Amino acid sequence: MKLKEISDITVGLNSQRLKTAAKDNTVYTANDLTNDLSAGYRGKYVLSDRGRVNAGDVVFHLMSATSAVVSNANAGKLMSQNILKFQFDRSKIDAWYFCYVLNEAQSIKHQLHNMKEGTVTKLITPATIKNLHIDLPDIELQKQIGSIYSTMLVTNRIREEYIRKESAAILEVLKKEDNNN
Q1: HSE of 2 in the Cβ direction (CA atoms, 13 Å)?
Q2: Cβ neighbours of 127 (radius 10 Å)
């Protein structure tokens, strides 16, 4: 079935509306999405208003073709027109499984490649996303796959942080011992 048949898909604010609304608000960015992807949010989901993201929302960045579940850290931020938000029945679709399919499934990557629009720069449009075909397994299998996927992403983030800290500590020791520093 097509995504537009199983999900309400909301496009973020255009640049003019965003500029007006962003005076007192923070905008959800691609960096926020990347951080949310490795945050592994699994808390309570509450429906959010049209132009904002809420913890538990599934979002998709059109430029990077990446989806994530929004964490508490980014709840309430405004969506730009490069962000799509999916709202669907959580008793039928697991949010992290949905992210897994959008980010990792070869069938989705193939469809996106074939549906991109433009002559010089190929772009993904909201219409492209709405027309993606997805096959959903039963909800229990979705939950298992989604849980494993989000755990993997969180584990990878923790490993990367450890390696970064370990490298910084080693370099600090080397600098203390080196007369050239």
Answers
A1: 11
A2: 11
Per-residue pLDDT of 40-73, as tens digits, reads: 998 888 777 778 899 999 999 998 899 999 999 9
Total residue length of the chain:
181
**DSSP, res 136:** -
Rounded CA-CA distance 152/155 in Å is 5
- Rg of the chain, C-alpha, whole Å: 19
Global pTM reads 0.85
Q: What is the DSSP letter of 74?
A: G
Query: 90 Cβ partners below 8 Å, 6+ apart?
Result: 45
Condensed to tens digits (0 to 9), the pLDDT of residues 72-82 reads: 999 999 898 89
